[in-house]
Predict the structure.
Amino acid sequence: MNLFLKNYKIVLLISTFFMSCNTQQEVTVSKTTSNEVSTSSKKVKNIILLIGDGMGLSQVSASQFYNKKTSNFERFPVIGLSKTSSASELITDSAAGATAFASGIKTYNGALGVNTDTLAVKTIVEEISKIGISTGIISTSSIVHATPAAFYTHTKKRSMYEDIATQLVNSDIDFFAGGGIKYFNDRKDKRDLILELEQKGFSVNTQSLPMNTKPVFNKKQGYLLASNGMPKMLDGRGEFLTNATKLALESLSSNEEGFFLMIEGSQIDWGGHDNDAEYLISELIDFDNTIGIALDFAELDGETLVIVTADHETGGFTLAQDNGDYNKIKPVFSTGGHSATMVPVFAKGPNAIDFGGIYENTSIYNKMKSFFFENNNN
Ligand SMILES: [Zn+2]
């Protein structure tokens, strides 16, 4: 009995010791990040939502081991976990996953901007455009691919690319950049959607991003820079994602009412599907660098909330030990498809604190919408 008590005391002492260590650590952490976490007196004017398609925690961890620079993921003071299942399946696809972020509903795999009865549901882009907020989307896939499309389309099947392109022309989007020219100018119905975009007030560029000329602020801008998906990083995509992000931030931030920008690292998912670690990691590092651009902007601005998350994990990716050598990492995959694992959510800026905890993917939409409307009412 005495022995038990003695041990119990030791355990207590040890845990008190660790608790005090933890507390000290926490105090230090909150000191260094006090700007980010506690200056919530500022309201959210702008939101940058970065979606790493197929990016689970092992993918994020890859930036720690394979990126020569310190990972930008380490700049976030708040981290949560998102539950990704769709209405129809335990394991979501990108269409249902992005619809959860864009419209706040769980729907069936393959659906974009429609509910389980295939009825259209409002997107955040439609809702905030009505209160004068500018909107932009950037992806390294074609711009009509599931994730970007969920923000402007209502389509019962994600593969209806030409129909989705038509809906982009008639949407409220002010800035877009990605691939997919062929869905606009090489169509079954022979319509020239590039011309139609111009008639709707867009300046459309199918050659390159105008990095050395000033962007046209008074016009909507569209950049379609590949026939379908953008090239891989391994095939020389270069700085498309970072530069498109800089350009979008310059253009959209000229709106005093605020902006919403969605940026997708689409091909993290494709590297996962291919079980190709080199492909996946090169895309992840490009996405990490893009997060850096968003955070640099937000830190200067002070009224911008940056959220980084994923729609689901792809590949059942793990950074495993290599044949018993614990000093060597061997990236391995357990599936060629998606997995049901929760995905991380990183947040920085006003109201970032609301993103701690475990919640459904739909609550990311609910929080974003409430910040925009709360700001608008005051
Ligand atoms: Zn996928």
